[in-house]
Amino acid sequence: MSVAVTYARLRVTDPARWSAAALAWRRWAALAGVLCGECGPLVERLRAAWTGAAADAAVAVLSAFRRRLLLFRLLCWRADQVLSEFAAALARARALLDRARTAAGTTEPAIDGSGPGAADLTSALQVAADADESAAARLAELAVVPVAPSGTGRPDCTATPARVRQWWDGLSPAERMWLLAAEPGTLAGLDGIPVADRDLANRLLLADKRDYLRRTGGDPGELRGLDRLAARLEDEKGPRAYLMGLDIAGDGRAVVALGDPDRAANVLTHVPGMTADLASLGGELTRAERVAARATELGPRAATSAVLWLDYDAPDFLHEAWSARQAEDAAAGLRRFQEGLRATHDGPAARQTVLGHSYGSLVVGKAATGALDADRVVFVGSPGVGVDSAARLRLPADRIFASTSASDPIQWLAVSPGSALPGPLPKMPGPSDDLWFGHDPSDPAFGARVFRSQRDGGHLGYWDRGKPALDSLAAIALGGTP
Questions:
Q1: Which DSSP string do the residues of 352-381 spell out, in sequence order?
Q2: pTM of the entire structure?
Q3: Any alpha helices (H) in 188-278, and if so which ranges?
Q4: Which whole number is the average pLDDT over 21-35?
């Protein structure tokens, strides 16, 4: 496609129309889900009330119908994924085009690479052309007819994410679709399976778990948490959500990406802190999304994806948060997750940033003492990260960032016992560089790069729009300096 044609099409393209098309496919998937949910109980009632050859034949027909509905649902979600990413790329291209027009002082900037705004215009056309090519290729795969894999050699439970990706890439699109429909439970939590495919598997599992809880009268709290998660996945606003992991045991765990990390140049993993669970998922996702949205505004040339990693047992309250045990237990899982993101990424390696908030900063700190696949780490509102110096982490000091607001109560609540009681007479705890889990990473003496935060907002104000911390977090995710 020529530059002139790309430019002409981009000028008249409305990304919202592509978002609407993606939403339509998402709604078709929801309708197919309702029908799938009705087929299961119908087959059970049929078996209970009818026996014999005719009954077996009827059950077989209904089961085959449900399998077709299941496949249709997967294909609808796949179309939703492709069109959502296409719309997001076009929105970035239009933002670059608008910048080029502003720089040129006219609605028709030169398309020959000369004049004001030339760099933004060139980038806009490249983003649009790449998005068009990728979407066309991915949509063509929707015509496949699923077939069972013919070979063996599946990776075992000890396989690295890179080995899992190698196995997955060795399958045909038809075989991969068959496995997603037939074995979603096997693939849903497997690091090394591409994010878009894990999303399909996990959405099926989420639907099955919700249906089961409704039929059996399960825990109302669990069902409410799953319903809230499902509502966010169907949300018509904001970037498309990808469900990468789900566990309803205990307080519940989930890993949700906003935008496809496998196709983004910048990937931010957000690790939340105390009290994080399925019930608080919405607030944590909003915070992660704000960083990605601001990064996209500041750097529209490349896609930025944010991942909420709530795949650990976060402390329920202070009585658990005084211990590092849960952070230590979570560290290995976070390392493997980051390794998986690296293995499944398409194209040039993404810039991977891992952000830990509150107790989540301790999780990130524990993970960063080992081989954490991250280009940058960020500690926000930290009670300490498990070490007293940036030199104890396995990243260069200039890639470690930290900030604590003057209004954040963490600096009073998480002081070390030694700081709170320095002499023979006790004193009221106050701000201290010695925190419960080590030296304050926001103190320059720790050795990290300290960035400015808002003076108000408390423990959650780092993501407030229009405040300096949010811009700093976005700049870090883009590879810049706050």
A1: EEEEEETHHHHHHHHHHTS----SEEEEES
A2: 0.93
A3: 195-216, 220-233
A4: 93
